[in-house]
Amino acid sequence: MTDLITRLHIAVAALALLCVGTSFTSRAIASEQAAWAALREGAIVVFRHANAPGIGDPQGFRLDDCATQRNLDAQGLDQAVKIGERFRREQIAVTAVLSSVWCRAFDTASLAFPGQVRREPSFNSFFDDRGQQAAQTDAARAILLGWSGPGTLVVVTHQVNMQALTGIGPASAEGVVLRREGEQLRIIGRITP
Asked: Is 172 helix (H, G, I), strand (E, B) or coil?
């Protein structure tokens, strides 16, 4: 009898975990659907650059020389292309694309949205200079709050910037969709290529 009760407890626990997992997956799908709908209406999406192995940049890197920086690998190049393909498939009207000056961010943006990218230093990484975080985040937030369309604004930046702007630490090539509400930016959902 004790063995049967133990097996029943295990079965109930497994069913509960399955329900929690299904609920989480359903919420994530609903969040992504809401995000794509908002983008069709002219929201903002802030992407972390596509996959570039490592952390930070090599010592002595230069912004004017991609060979000295951490760059996209084959997976990152594929992710960047897929971002653009997904936007076209979802029929998102992209009006402006802003990118960090770092090559991995600019390359992500350029592969996804060829010919549309403008470098914007307010979205540069402050990973190695945390003293710049507050001023730079304020400047980036002002750009996002100033967006009035028409169409969608796409920004490609870095994990530290996205964490400071949204409180979310995204995966490579993950986007956070925002909508301006007064003087606030409301998170609508997250998207992946």
From this structure: coil
